[in-house]
Amino acid sequence: MKIGVVGLGYWGPNLVRNFLGTEGVNAVVCCDIQKKKLDRIKQKFPMVEITSNLDSLLKRDDIDAVAVVTPVSTHFPVGMKVLKAGKHLLLEKPMTSSVGEAEQLLEEASRRNLVLMVDRTFIYTGAVQKIREIIEKGDLGEVLYFDSVRVNLGLFQHDTNVLWDLAPHDLSIMSYLIDVEPVSVSAIGINHFNGVEDMAYLAVRFPRNIIAHFHVNWLSPVKIRRILIGGTKHMVVYDDMEPSEKVKVYDKGINLTSEESVYKTLVQYRMGDMYAPQIEQSEALGLLTAEFISCVKSQKPPTSDGVLGLGVVRILEAAERSLRAGGGAVNLEKAFSLV
Amino acid sequence: MKIGVVGLGYWGPNLVRNFLGTEGVNAVVCCDIQKKKLDRIKQKFPMVEITSNLDSLLKRDDIDAVAVVTPVSTHFPVGMKVLKAGKHLLLEKPMTSSVGEAEQLLEEASRRNLVLMVDRTFIYTGAVQKIREIIEKGDLGEVLYFDSVRVNLGLFQHDTNVLWDLAPHDLSIMSYLIDVEPVSVSAIGINHFNGVEDMAYLAVRFPRNIIAHFHVNWLSPVKIRRILIGGTKHMVVYDDMEPSEKVKVYDKGINLTSEESVYKTLVQYRMGDMYAPQIEQSEALGLLTAEFISCVKSQKPPTSDGVLGLGVVRILEAAERSLRAGGGAVNLEKAFSLV
Amino acid sequence: MKIGVVGLGYWGPNLVRNFLGTEGVNAVVCCDIQKKKLDRIKQKFPMVEITSNLDSLLKRDDIDAVAVVTPVSTHFPVGMKVLKAGKHLLLEKPMTSSVGEAEQLLEEASRRNLVLMVDRTFIYTGAVQKIREIIEKGDLGEVLYFDSVRVNLGLFQHDTNVLWDLAPHDLSIMSYLIDVEPVSVSAIGINHFNGVEDMAYLAVRFPRNIIAHFHVNWLSPVKIRRILIGGTKHMVVYDDMEPSEKVKVYDKGINLTSEESVYKTLVQYRMGDMYAPQIEQSEALGLLTAEFISCVKSQKPPTSDGVLGLGVVRILEAAERSLRAGGGAVNLEKAFSLV
Amino acid sequence: MKIGVVGLGYWGPNLVRNFLGTEGVNAVVCCDIQKKKLDRIKQKFPMVEITSNLDSLLKRDDIDAVAVVTPVSTHFPVGMKVLKAGKHLLLEKPMTSSVGEAEQLLEEASRRNLVLMVDRTFIYTGAVQKIREIIEKGDLGEVLYFDSVRVNLGLFQHDTNVLWDLAPHDLSIMSYLIDVEPVSVSAIGINHFNGVEDMAYLAVRFPRNIIAHFHVNWLSPVKIRRILIGGTKHMVVYDDMEPSEKVKVYDKGINLTSEESVYKTLVQYRMGDMYAPQIEQSEALGLLTAEFISCVKSQKPPTSDGVLGLGVVRILEAAERSLRAGGGAVNLEKAFSLV
């Protein structure tokens, strides 16, 4: 199988490297409008083909699937071209810059029986897989909250703000771990340099008082990647900057006790041990490319991933609306269904 | 000078201990309605006097000043009694449970020429003093944001939610460090256990796109006490859980560059060294009691501290309104002025 | 019961404070030759009695026991005086500056049926108690090694080097955890400033290839307090600088496999989870003073503690000999027995 | 220029990857006796040539230089073959398994005017370069000690013990940073599993009471890579496990004061700020291969690196002798000189 990779900026070369190492991939054809980037990828991986012509790449019969790693605003037009050329599609996150675009891509992929996958790398990490396993076993009890901080001195993007740039990672993790449909979104964003928002706070409300909150920031002197998940039985801290022990499970929880009097304690804390489960170390991106190839081979179209990608875009779009309106809550419409 | 301490719950004994060690204090008289608490303080500090009768304590001529460390809802009635008895007043944070109450206390203290100080312990720590020094020297440049996380597995309070319990610390630090009047407040709070809010997110907006954000939480498995302060020249991380190196100053900043083309970078990051200044280790509470005694002696009434305490209450009251209304922004009225 | 505390330098006041809070202690009499130190303790704890006359203190019938917290070189003469006056004795670590002195004190205490306890505070910490519990349950398997680092920018002592100053803590912990008699000792010490050794490395060998190693240092810019304990089944990291999670137990071990060929792997690593047990937070020194009072009351003389204190002095004395001789191994003589 | 790489075990493929990315390298020819390893490298880097015949590789005129990444015991015979074939030589650390072998290789390279470089990767890291810069500026003052801990759950080696496996890294760093000839070596090693030593402590003494100490360990549950360097003016902590801030410089030092009396303090500590300089992030191995190619091109034979590699072997050989003799100090003979 031959794979096309369109867009060779920061992330594209990582996909090229991983596709080259994925079983079942015979060749990778790289495409970019900038000759400099093509030369660089050729120097790094002399066995790849390069081209600056997307249309001719899409006309080739020997190419089965295409990964699109271009700026967000081009995801829709380029992705649609890829699907209309009958190729399976792997889209970089966020899926598109609007819900409408995401829905059109999903419909097109569905009609043509093509795989549409969104690059949600973090889902494939050993850490997130382990947390999901813990939640599914019921070890956390009822999930109470999800609190994420993803801040660093980051590259300012030009066609997108910090919310669309950084939050998709954590929104993907959230929707992978919390199996409930969110109901509303509110966001505050600040633009210090007359351009796009460089820091933002995002809250997502669920039924039963579950809340998820996100701090994304391009202006932090330190790199923090930490998610707290509170449950009634146990609580989890996922710190991606820890060299080992990325996931810690705390045997701490809260028990409701019968309210004896207004002045008596209504809740009890349970303090206990902490344990840090061993985490699988495989490169997440390699697992993702492998799953993409496997889906393409088995003609299992379209995977639910596209729908989850749409869910992330739906939240981002609502967040953008809240942000523009001063931070009030924006209700989420019903989720898109392919049925 | 003799000092009364009213309320001997969690924090009161710390004030007793520090007053006992403050120069100029001859004796401490402890007052609580629970006999058990009086016995315990007597056992710990055999040289203190104890009484369960507040009125008789306030009638004594040999007592110059009284510290009130009772639950928040009683700060106003007890504090007013103290002032009306002609005693100087040290109030535990938060000052009162409403702006109206705080204003009445300030007016009473002003009319009677009495000192009214609010226990804002953190202001007196070596760390916050050092950060203020750095900001005043202009080392941070323009302050861009203030982001605070104060979370732990905390004792649920009964007469107050997590916002009124934990946020006063960070709001005090914020108003001590950012010398600009805030303009609006928004807050989200979650109540998981049918009582008061146990976690909350609070945003305070300032002119010139400065923002302060606070995460306070009684349900976190880990204790985090971290403040990020972003400036145009340098950035600060204040991590109160670090045994040494609580304050780190990063030589990282952002330079605006002229926009040459749509695709050129509009901002430039400056990466550089980090340094961790040596921090004074004295106990903050001891410095606070010393300043209170010094104010009382010099008859320097009323200190600005009461006004700053009012500022904190004003933000908390607005936050509470935003929280009840679903998180939209609430404008802050003009600050109280004694003139 | 009344307790005398002799020596009010750095550590003495901590003992005073803890004795004041120990059930069964009615009064504490403080003794020091420096009037300044007596004044300071009186100011801090107004209920203590003070005296600069040791002999008169020892003559008093109302004093049952005396804690000696003077410089090491005086432990023997002062301690012997205390015992000869018929008082129970609590000695600061290290017990004495020679094995001969320690043995004489033990004999005197034994003859007079008096309690002789050595202040081995760390043994009473929740962390060391928990590790002992883990080892006793057999969770570690065979202990392979004990590696301790205790370094900081420390106060230079005048009558003792860094080995006698810092190593007693870790030697106490070691002998509390490893229930095997050590066989030899070697030590390297460096004296950078024409006085006493300011850094040292100490190795203690046991039968069955068990080794304990200690790095003690007054010249380290950072404070490190970390002990690694390797076992065949699990391994422990005890980091006393961690605010919570001081003890971590790693499910990592080594299995011997049958040697199939010279080139096959002879050992197998077992990787797995880590857990951090909850640690009791009580102040260790308070538990020690409580145990001392309880021993005195029950007339349980002399506790094994004195013998363990002697074991530490025996290792230090051998280490000193090795250090002077260039670092070669020095065999330990048979341990002292009271039988 | 074409480069041969002999030995494709754990480290060899890293050298292949870096040589492929080094300017001036046209092709890499890989050689191993195991066909499986040749297949694996071909799959990963399809542009390399592979061969299992070392002799034919050495006969080729188009190959200018050869990197030898085989087990230590074969460094001498394979390295000598390479030199006798007239090829420049890059040897994996440690250089050889004896001083005699290292000297013969150096003589051969010198006679034939060939480059002989030893792979001392750590020297090329931004962290070590920065520390050297700090020392050369005189910022540390007089170096007092060098203390290194390199422990982890490591792969047991079969033809070498933990000392020869891990200590060369830190001995290279030490000799790169401390510009004084060491005088003696002592070592303790423990063999828990009837094979080779799996943990060891090594001390290297210098004139003027400078000491270097090394703890290397294959049985540690946690990975520690930390070097403390004490100086009279400043002190350095180099923690290679820190994601950023690997090097911290402490403004703490010790001042000698005139000895006024036996009881006065003889040394004074100076406490102050800490700073963490920005560290260059380039891959060290890439810098090393680039320097090797540059030496070969400029015919600058033989670089001092071989002599430094010999210095490391000299210490290891003396350490081995001390270890076998029970840990006493072994004097180092005069260093080899090419003059």
Structural commentary:
Four copies of one chain form a homotetramer. Chain A has 339 residues and is of the alpha/beta class. Chain A folds into two domains: 2-121 and 285-301, Rossmann fold (3-Layer(aba) Sandwich), CATH 3.40.50.720; 123-280 and 317-331, Dihydrodipicolinate Reductase, domain 2. Helix content of chain A is 33%, strand content 27%. Chain A contains nine helices and 17 strands. In chain A, strands 16-13-12-11-7-10-9-8-17 form a nine-stranded mixed beta sheet. In chain A, strand 4 (63-68), helix 4 (75-84) and strand 5 (88-91) form a beta-alpha-beta unit. In chain A, helix 1 packs across helix 8 (284-298). Chain A is globular and about 65 Å long. The two termini of chain A are 31 Å apart. Chains in contact: A-B, A-C, A-D, B-C, B-D, C-D. At the A-B interface, strand 7, strand 8, strand 9, strand 10 and strand 11 of A face strand 7, strand 8, strand 9, strand 10 and strand 11 of B.
